[in-house]
Each structure stands twice: as C-alpha cells, then as structure tokens.
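**Protein record**
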Amino acid sequence: MSVLIIDVGTSSIRVARANPDGSLSGERRAPALPQTPAPGLVEFDADALATSALALATQSIEADGPADGVAITNQRASTVVWNPATGRAVAPGQGWQDLRTVGDCLVLAADGLRLAPNHSATKVANILGQVDPDRSTGLLSGTIDTWLAWSLSGGSTFVTDASNASLTGLATNAADAWNAAVLDALNIPPESLATIGDSLGALGTLDLLPGAPPLLAVLGDQQASMIGQGAVVPDAAKITFGTGGMLDVCTPGDRPAVPRTTAGCFPIAGWSAGGQRTWALEAIMLSAGTNVEWLRDDLGIIDDTAQSDELAASVDDADGVVFVPACLAAEAVASAEFTQLEDAYNFELNRTGAKGGEFEGGWTPRKYDAMATWALGTPGRVRMSRAEFDTMLAARKAALDQVKARAQKILEDGVTRMKASGKVNESAATAALSLAQIYVDTGQADKAVAVLEDEQLGPLSLVKAGHAAAQREGLGGETYKTALRAYISSLTGAADSDAVIKKATEVMAAMKEKIEHKLETALGVHARVRLVEPGSTTRSEGKAVRVIDRRKKG
C-alpha cells in the first residue's frame, strides 16, 4: 500500500509518499508561516493553507502515481472557522500559540471552567463572537485536520480524531464526544463541530485529489511522532523539537487519572483504532525552533539556521548565561494553577520567572501563565475570594483599557501631524494601519473604515494604488485583513449594507489574488481557487488544469 502523507506544521506544509517497505519518497514542501500582528497573537491564512496542501498533494499524485490512501498529521489546537456555503474561512485562523483569549480563560476559571488559551475552545468562541455573535449563520469550526479533510473532500468529510479532540478543551475526558457543558458555556453550536472518530480507518474520501483516494488516518503531530519514533508501549517517551518542544510519554490502560499539573504536564489521547484508545502524558515548551529563527531573523546574529550549531560548538560552556525560551511571551517561565474549592477560589501562582528577565530554577511549560503573572503583579501564592478576584480582574481590565486609550490618542495625534505635513511614507502608512486596528479592536469600526479609506494616508487606498509607502512586506496583507474586519464589524449600523458588502467582497478578492500570487511564486504552479462548477477546467501555462471548488456538496 502506498500512502500519501500530508504534514501541516506550524511553519510549513509537507507531503511525502510512504512506500510498502516503510521508506519515504517524493517529499515536497511549501512555507506556511504564521503571522504575529501584535504581541501574543499568532494567526494564519486558512484558505492559503488548504490551497497549498491541495496543490502539493496533487503534484505528488500526478508525479508519483495514484495513492492507495491519504494520512493527515497536523499542528494541534490551531483553529479555523469557515462558511460551508463558500468553503472559505471567515477570519484568520488562530494558531495554537495564540494568547489573545487568556483573559477569557481567567474569567472562565473563576467560574470553575478550566481552559487554556492554547485550547481551541476559546479560539472558536472568540472568532464566532466577532463574525457570528448570535450563532445564526451555520458556520463550521475545527482544527487543521478537520479543515483539510473538509476542504480536500469538497465538504463531504467532516471528521476529527481523539488525538486532536483531546487538545481542543471542548471534548469529554474520554475524548469520544464533545462536552455539552463547555459548548453551552462558550455558546458553541454542537452541529458546528466535526464527528470524533478513530485515528485510523476508513474516514472519508478526498474527492478533490486525483483518483479521489480514501482518508485512512488523522493524527495530531506529536502523537504521530510518538508512533514514528516507537513510543507506543507504556513508559516509552519521545521529545520533539520543532517550532516548539514537546515531551510525550505513553501510559498504560485508561486515561491517566491526573489533572494538569503545576509543572505543566497533562493527559492527552494518543490515538484510537477500532474504538480503543491509547493515552499519554505531555509537556510543552512554546519556543524551540522559533528561538533559532529569532537569532536569524530578528537579532541577525546568524545568516542561516545551520550556523546556530556552529556557534554553540565554538565555546566550551555558557559561562553562567541562561537563556529563557520565552520568545512568544513570558508564560514560558511561570506556572499558574486555577482550582475551585466549594465557595472559595484558590488563585495560585507558582512563579519560577520574575519580571525584568530574572530566572529562578527550572522551566515550567504553561500557557496562560503570562496573564496570571500580569494579573497578580507579585510573586508567591495569593488566596482570594470570588469577589476579590472579580474586583482584581476588573481593575486590570480597566488598566488595559487605559493603555489602549493612550495608544489610540498617540496614534491619532501622530496620524494627524503626518497628514498636516503632507508626507506620505512607510511610517505614516504603518501608523494609520495601527490606528485602524485599534479602532476595530475597540468596537469603532466606522472610524477604522474612515482611516483605511482616507485618500491621502489611508493604508487601503495606498495599497490599492500601489503607492511606494505601502510596499513593506506584509503591510498589504495586514491592511486587507484589517479592512475586512472593519467592513464586517460596520455592517450592523450601516446605512447602505449592500455597499459595505461590496467593499468587503472586493477586499476578499484582492486577498485571494495576493495569496494566489504568493503560491505561484513559492510552488511554481497555478494553484488557483475559484468558485465555479465542479469538474470544469482552465488553462495554465498551456496545460489544462482542474479548477478547485471547495463548496460544500449538496
């Protein structure tokens, strides 16, 4: 049996053929780098990701012959919400490292619901809250495995497996069904989520791939790594260093009867076959390979990744210097535990890293620790009642609102001065975009639209005109995303909703064109996505190619 493997990581997509003798061949890859529009935010373009995966898989089958089946392994907990009528994501996907919902997690914890921002749960609720607050449009939600299976099948396969479901925060402890209490607390419609099935088996058919091969396996990346490295018997362990670092230990019997510990370990479903689950314990560090990218891309200490090894080998020891791997946020050096005991709330912070870059003792991999450290403001353990917690949280939120207000005022004054000076440059366009983003984030969509469309300094106007001030890498994409959010948010009070929808559609078309151009450059193929009748063809470089149609069938 020849199986096509699609591996969607945090920074790249790879496909390869697993041959009957166990060897791999025909590896192909494409970049799929996330974006960080602000500290703590990690986003990705879900439509581009699906299109790239489809293009790579199609290339593999056309070059290496038909596949007997397809296996998908993927970054876990990263979340997509999409419209099944169009086959398009309705907002940027939120990566597993994204921390924007940490405040929501604190509030939910105070009510006895323990979730972390790296779970999919609050990510789904966050996106739905922006684009479908009354949950009336029939949107679908899922992790990367579900999104790819749905996209590559044309909407006929809507599944996930226990290895992915157990990392969403939405599943029961047995990871065999969705937790109704959590769905209710977050107002997530159960019908918007995929069926939880086995990791291995006949899971569906990927109709958009040549030959319509069956989907035979779905596994979260770390669980797939456990199988690949032979950690499939009790007490066998593996550690993987990719974008982050993950340590997994295979455990015997049923789900480990331990909660998420203060050291950061937590139980996960390993995999499921024939209805039987294998379990594991996992610990995560957010930054591993990203530290090397930071040395290369931000500090400029090295020119390529391989040089990091040469530099490390050039000295005998670090001479007492300790590097804290906290490139995504300070949560990598703190540990928080939220528990509810009867009518009192224990809000505990076991802090191993202090503000100002201090470091005491070992590294504890947790996700919402940065927010806990920020919220408490002091090290040590704090015990407080619910009322005290609510008062503290309200004060901190008020302080954050003041920071946002000051930032808005500074940007408003700066943009006003730049307009008065008549200078239109990259700094001015970036400042105007930042102001528009603050307006969107604070519910001032009409002001955001006005800034974006300003004829003199509006970043959307400059991008459309191809102005030199809008040529910075990434500015166009961020401008289109901000404009789309602004238009959607302004629909509620719009006097002419049709005009707003038309503008939003134009922005989406521009984003699509930009994505296609990037894919053509990166892959050397025309992987165009078009909403046309299934089975139609177009011409590309003199050859007939299939047009992708990811609308839901029926």
About this structure: Residues 386-421 form the longest helix (36 residues).
